[in-house]
Specification:
This protein is mainly α. Helices cover about 80% and strands about 0% of the residues.
């Protein structure tokens, strides 16, 4: 080999090495600078995001929306920021805009628990109950980045509250049954579940929850009042009254329980079918039912009652004016109760006025004796 070539080889190798090292250094510098820039952008986006959160907490939704959008222009496709923007859009009543934002998140992350929950809330606000329920279920069974069990429980609780507001007793009861095992150790949730079972039309299960709560907290006014409500819903007014009385002793300022206690007393004093009453007292109560049903029907009908109601009103006046012997009291009592029921049902048939507080005991008694 030429001596000059032999001398040049190490020189070229050194040059290549130097070039490679220079390139590696430049690449490292570029990578470092890019990381620094991304880090700075993330810090700036977080700063803007925090500002937007503070504005939202103060109810300054319009300003918060602008700050969230500004943050997203820096940190594009950041799911946390997008969902935060959707929440404040929802709070501001901008449902279509919120839905657009959440749809974009769901296109990228269709199993996201947080995104599905956000969509459920939007649909609920729009009055789309069926689709809202569907998205609540997707959220419950979706993916959560942290505290997944807690998030799923809270989402199911939000769903049952939504179903309770909708008056959907069948679906509500199904969700409550799924919740029972998850809330066994939490007394506050047991109480909440008890009230929801009442809303779902299942007072027996509600009573179980309140009795369990009383085993843990024997001096719980909330549990006694709830148990009273469960008994009341089952039309066991004596038991309901007893539980309301205990609740009121434990929490004397509870006006709601006071009202329920008074209502129990009114029903028990008006009911002609209660055990232990003599014939004369049963008859007296049956006449009182006719009087009250006639007053209610007259209030609903106004000055021109329908023919069927006029006929019943005439029968009621005749029944109230007749004199009977003691031996006729039992038969007269049965006839009076039937007449009071007919008056009530006919009077309420086309009545556009709500049942008043004064009429409520009558409605409960007639519902009870009609069974």
């Amino acid at each position: 080999m030429d001596k000059r070539a032999e001398a040049a080889a190490p020189s070229m190798l050194g040059t290549f090495t130097l070039v490679f090292l220079s390139m590696a250094a430049l690449f490292a510098i570029d990578t470092f600078m890019a990381k620094m820039e991304r880090s700075e952008r993330r810090r700036e986006a977080r700063r803007i995001f925090d500002e937007a959160q503070q504005l939202a907490a103060q109810g300054r939704n319009a300003e918060a929306i602008e700050r969230f959008r500004s943050g997203l222009s820096i940190a594009r496709d950041d799911q946390e920021y997008e969902l935060a923007l959707a929440r404040v859009l929802l709070a501001a009543g901008k449902l279509a805009d919120a839905q657009t934002v959440v749809n974009e998140v769901l296109e990228r992350a269709p199993t996201s628990g947080a995104a599905n929950l956000a969509m459920a809330r939007i649909l609920a606000r729009q009055g789309n109950a069926a689709d809202a329920s569907s998205y609540y279920h997707r959220a419950i069974y979706g993916r959560w980045n942290e505290r997944a069990a807690e998030q799923r429980l809270q989402t199911r609780l939000e769903l049952v509250d939504f179903l309770a507001r909708q008056g959907d007793k069948g679906d509500l009861l199904a969700e409550l049954l799924r919740l029972q095992d998850e809330t066994l150790a939490d007394s506050a949730l047991r109480s909440r579940l008890g009230h929801l079972f009442l809303a779902a039309g299942s007072p027996a299960r509600a009573a179980e929850d309140f009795r369990e709560l009383l085993r843990r907290q024997p001096q719980s006014a909330e549990a006694y009042a709830g148990l009273g409500e469960a008994e009341f819903a089952e039309r066991r007014y004596v038991a309901a009254r007893a539980h309301f009385q205990i609740a009121l002793r434990l929490r004397p300022e509870d006006t709601s329980t006071q009202r329920r206690l008074e209502l129990c007393g009114q029903v028990l004093e008006m009911d002609p079918t209660r055990r232990g009453l003599g014939a004369a007292e049963r008859y007296r109560r049956s006449r009182k039912l006719i009087e009250l049903a006639l007053e209610s029907a007259s209030r609903c009908a106004g000055s021109v009652p329908p023919a069927a109601l006029r006929e019943l009103a005439e029968k009621a006046q005749a029944a109230l004016g007749r004199r009977i012997r003691a031996s006729q009291m039992d038969d007269a009592t049965e006839a009076d109760i039937a007449l009071a029921e007919d008056l009530w049902q006919t009077g309420r048939k086309d009545c556009k006025k709500a049942v008043t507080q004064a009429e409520e005991p009558l409605a409960l008694v007639l519902a009870e004796v009609g069974q």
